[in-house]
TrEMBL record:
<feature type="domain" description="Carboxymuconolactone decarboxylase-like">
    <location>
        <begin position="45"/>
        <end position="116"/>
    </location>
</feature>
<keyword id="KW-0560">Oxidoreductase</keyword>
<dbReference type="InterPro" id="IPR010195">
    <property type="entry name" value="Uncharacterised_peroxidase-rel"/>
</dbReference>
<dbReference type="Pfam" id="PF02627">
    <property type="entry name" value="CMD"/>
</dbReference>
<keyword id="KW-0575">Peroxidase</keyword>
<dbReference type="InterPro" id="IPR003779">
    <property type="entry name" value="CMD-like"/>
</dbReference>
<dbReference type="InterPro" id="IPR004675">
    <property type="entry name" value="AhpD_core"/>
</dbReference>
<dbReference type="GO" id="GO:0004601">
    <property type="term" value="F:peroxidase activity"/>
</dbReference>
<protein>
    <submittedName>
        <fullName>Peroxidase-related enzyme</fullName>
    </submittedName>
</protein>
<dbReference type="InterPro" id="IPR029032">
    <property type="entry name" value="AhpD-like"/>
</dbReference>
Amino acid sequence: MPRIEALKPEQVPADSKPTLDAFTKNIGFTPNMMATFAASPIAFNAWTALFSVMTKALDVKTRDSIGLAVSEVNGCNYCLTVHSYTAKHMAKLEADEIILARMGNATDPKRDAAVQFAKKVIETRGKVSDADFAAVRDAGYTDANIMEIVGLVAMYSLTNFINNVSDPEKDFPPVLPAGSISL
């Protein structure tokens, strides 16, 4: 049972409506997370601005893999359903790649370094070791790319926290708990 109910279209604040309508048009439906988040035009529009800019960071496979790793660490089941769906349908990741990403890895060496680094950032609250930093840099990521990875971790954590607090009804296909997954 959601702690905060998703807003019905007539309940959406005027300052959230254009943003929510744009997402609905783009996705084809209104996800419960967004209909819940829209209750605060300030928070919703701030996240949307960050999301819009961060879609230019790195590549879609790396972004979705980071989203999966961060959501797994943060225990956000709603975001895991969303990121598993988008990783499959938009990033075109295979099922085993989605599982690996949830575990903080990838088969592609460069993407693996980014996902491992993102997982370390969230696990250590940003206090990564020199070795963690060197590994992502040695994989070919620039200082700008490293800031983008950290930005993605923060952005995904924000939605993880919003969803963990509000507990919206899941409207994407369910995923198995991490403990029951094996390769």
